[in-house]
Amino acid sequence: MTSTRHIATVAAVAVSGLLAACGASGNGEDGKGADQIVSDARTALRTAASFHLTGTISADTGKVSFDMKVDGKSTASGHMDSAGTGFDFVLAGGKLYFRGKALFAKVAPAAADTIGDSWVTVTGNSDLESAAAAVTQLADAGALADALGSGGSGPYTKGGTKTVNGQAVIAVTSKDGEMDVALSGKPYPVHFDGGAKGRLDITEYASHFGISAPSGAVDYGALGSASSSSSSSTTDSSTTKAVVDATKVRDGVLLVAQGTITSSSGSVNDAWGVGPAVSGQLPASISVSVQTGSSSFPSPATPTRVVLYGAENGGGDLFMVVVMDTAGNCEIGALTGTPPNGNPVKRTLAAGIDCTAANGLNALQS
C-alpha cells in the first residue's frame, strides 16, 4: 500500500532517530554520567508494562502524529495521522482493529462508504500492513528501548535538571536532540525533543487503561478487498476464486447491507441495492443471486454463488444472505425492518442441510 507505506517507515526510522538522542534518569541518575543514564533509560523503558505515548514526527511525506495508550505489549489503543490520513486503532486479544474513513478511502475506496465509521479487524492484511506495523512498533516498549541510544548518535552530554510534565528530570543531549528523564522512581524517559525531526512524550507509566476489543467489528477480508492476500476468497488450481470462509463473507455482506439499504436504495428485486453493491466487491467468479417470493425451489448457495433473499410484508421486510464455503459450511445472516437494515441475526446451518434460502428461513424462525 503506497498510501500507508510511509507510516511504518516514519515510526521505525524517525522514532529511532529521536530516541537515539536520549538518555534517562531516576533516583540518583543525576549523579551518573551521560552514557550510564542512556543505559539505565533503555532498561527502564524496556520493562515498562504500560505508558501513554504522544508525539509528532516530521518526514518527507509530511507529519505523522500519534496519541496512544499501551497496556502491555499486545494491548494498545489510540489515534494516528499520517499526512492527513487519520485512523483510530485498537490492539487487543492478538488482533488489530482500525476505524477511519480517510484510511479506508486510501486502501479500499470501493468499500470505504460502506465501512464508514465501523471498526474493522485487519490483522494479517497486506493492504494495511504498513499502518499495522507502525502501531505494533510504537506499542512495543522493547522496540522503543532498542531504538534508544542506537544509530551512533553519541557522544552524549549530560545536561541540567528541570521540570517536564510535572516531573523533575535530568537531560541528556546529543547531535540529534535531547531526552528528559524522571529523577524519582524508575529512570523512565518522559520527553524527547528532536527539533525539526519531532518530539515525543511518554507519561502515565504503570497505569491501567482498561483497553478491550471493540464490539461489532467486521473482518476486512470479508469486504472484497482488492488485495488477493486479504480477500475472503482464494484461488484454486484452476484460478477460480471461491468463498473459503462463509462466516467472514456473511458478516461482510451484512455490513454492506446495513450501509446500503435505505428507503430509496432500490427494491426487493435487487435486495434493496445490496445485490449490485456486493457484486461490485466480490471477484467476478463469485456470482450473486437475488431471490424473492417463494424460497422453495431457487438454486442453493455454493462456494461460487452467494444468495441474497428479500421479502416484503406488512409486519416488516426481510433481507437475508446465504453463504457456503469450500469446506461445506453454510452461514445465514438476516436484517429486518422497513427498510430491512437493522436487527442482525446470524445462524449456521447444520451439516447435511442444503444451503438454500428455504432452509435459511427455517433456521431464522427456530
Write the layout of secondary structure elements.
Elements (H helix, E strand, L loop, with lengths): L4 H15 L14 H13 L3 E10 L2 E10 L4 E7 L2 E8 L2 E5 L1 H7 L1 H7 L4 E2 L7 H10 L2 H7 L9 E8 L2 E8 L2 E6 L6 E5 L4 E6 L14 E2 L13 E3 L5 E3 L2 H15 L13 H6 L7 E6 L12 E7 L5 E8 L5 E8 L4 E8 L7 H9 L1
Parallel strand pairs: 6-12, 15-16
Antiparallel strand pairs: 1-2, 1-11, 2-3, 3-4, 4-5, 5-6, 7-8, 8-9, 9-10, 10-11, 13-14, 16-17, 17-18, 18-19
Helix pairs in contact: 1-5, 1-6, 2-6, 3-4, 4-7
Give a description of the structure:
The chain is elongated. α1 (5-19) crosses α6 (141-147). It has two domains: 5-203, Clam (outer membrane lipoprotein receptor (LolB), chain A), CATH 2.50.20; 232-365, no CATH class. It is of the alpha+beta class and 366 residues long. It has helices at 5-19, 34-46, 101-107, 109-115, 129-138, 141-147, 246-260, 274-279, 357-365; strands at 50-59, 62-71, 76-82, 85-92, 95-99, 120-121, 157-164, 167-174, 177-182, 189-193, 198-203, 218-219, 233-235, 241-243, 287-292, 305-311, 317-324, 330-337, 342-349.
